[in-house]
Amino acid sequence: MALEGPSEAARAEARLGLYVHVPFCAVRCSYCDFSSGSLSAAKVERYLEAMAREASLRAPLAAAHAFSSVFFGGGTPSALSARHFARLDRLLRDAFTILPNAEVTLEANPETVREPLLEAWANAGVNRLSMGAQSFDPRELARLGRLHDAARPAAAVQLARAHGFERLSLDLMFGFPGHSAGTWSATLDAALALDPGHLSAYCFIPEPGTPLGAKVRSGAARLPSAEQQADLYEMLVSRLAAAGYGAYETSNFCRPGRECRHNLVYWLRRDCLGLGPSAHGLWRGVRYGNRYGLDEWAECLAAGRECADRETETERSRADEILMLGLRLGVGLAADDHAPEAWGTVERRYAAAFERALAEGRIEATSWGVRVASRHRFVADDVIAWLMAEAERGSARSKQRAPDADLTALGVAP
Fold first, then answer.
1. Nearby residues of 351 by Cβ (< 8 Å), 6 or more positions away
2. Which of 267, 294, 325 delimits the end of a domain?
3. Contact between 91 and 57 (Cβ < 8 Å)
4. pLDDT band for position 26 (cuts 50, 70, 90)
5. 334 with 220, same domain?
6. Are residues 93 and 185 in the same domain?
7. Is the peptide bond before 178 cis (omega within 30 degrees of 0)?
8. CB neighbours (10 Å) of residue 282?
9. C-alpha span between 138 and 149 (Å, rounded)
10. Residue 223 binned pLDDT confidence (cut-offs 50, 70, 90)
11. pLDDT exceeds cutoff 60 at 351
């Protein structure tokens, strides 16, 4: 059985992130609501010109800093040609300092993984590939709108390894219309046979404005029941644990030392710059989200206008985010992962809520903080929502509590 993580070493390495959104796809999947669109030479040129403008705009913020991780997400970053990806990489490295040992991840669809692109990615310093397999069942792949067949992920993994890529991750999906325990078991068998080192598995969400989401919302397609989805998740956790994969986050599993450093930047609330349409960032206490569509984002930058909405964090929003993100981790909330001032906001807002949650078994105390018990991991978001509601109720009763109540008094390490 694998230990739940993330490890202390992985958390220490997740220091400063750079996210780069590539908004292109050959075909939009039936479940996807990310910022993406069709690919053309004119659109790619417009994207790269706008990206150069945004990189120049954000660069002064990070002038004294070096990034420990870079993540090319989408859309489908692997849809860019080798020439265009090399150009994107150059403009980023001209604007920002990226550590020599940085984790550089690129999301790729299996059908796009080819030798010229692998060479371009390796030359640009990409050292981790995250491939969207979703399923290994042909009928499910068609239902999800995927372009690749069931055999293509294995071929893509083999080709990537032949080109020196050792850090590989597969994305899977469960709980969508027509999904069953039998096909899920077969998909897990196929994924584990590839020994990717890291697996992400997400429960389907019927997003508004997506074809599959619309079918679910109209009643034309039915989801597995909540109990069935929970059973699918339990199968996932037990099968991966038996194969040596620890659940270091609710939807993410890895072999020792294979955590995604960049995602840990998010979950630990460390600073991250986001570039590209719909990209989000957190920098020195300010959250921002770029304009969603390529055209609006590019037009704002070309006109010299602000291309993002901004929100300065408050003590309350900081505490809420630390809770919401940290309790999804296998180790849960660890005081040492946060600056004393930030951890103090959690103590002030959530001490009473933690006390009740511990008494009711919703969370459990650890030597470093608190966490959601593994048996409640699939409903971690419900536990988090309960804690937030309890904190609100507790604020109305705060005058009745001792002023020095904190997590230390509950047996939780500061």
1. 405, 406, 407, 409, 410
2. 267
3. no
4. low
5. no
6. yes
7. no
8. 19
9. 6
10. confident
11. yes
Whether 139 is covered by a domain: the verdict is yes
Number of domains in the chain: 2
Same domain, 320 and 184: no
Instruction: Answer whether residue 287 is part of any domain.
Output: no
- Domain carrying residue 353: 315-410
Using pLDDT thresholds of 50, 70 and 90, give the confidence band for residue 30.
low
Lowest mean pLDDT among 96-105, 108-117, 182-191: 108-117
The answer to whether 10 and 264 have CB atoms below 8 angstroms apart is yes
Alpha carbon 220 to chain centroid, angstroms: 30
Q: What is the DSSP letter of 31?
A: T
| Domain-terminating residue out of 267, 283, 300 | 267
CA distance 350 to 315: 12
What length is written for the chain? 414
| Nearest-angstrom CA–CA distance, 333 and 323 | 7
Which residues have C-beta within 8 Å of that of residue 300, sequence separation ≥ 6? 291, 306, 307
The CATH number that applies at residue 23 is 3.80.30.20
**Residue 5, pLDDT score:** 85
Following CA atoms 180, 185, 189, 192 in sequence, which dihedral angle do they give, to the nearest 10 degrees?
A: 90
What letters, b where the CB count within 10 A reaches 16 and e where it falls short, cover 324-348? bbbbbbbbbbbbebbeeebbbbbbb
d(CA 230, CA 377): 10
> CB of 177 within 8 A of CB of 143?
yes
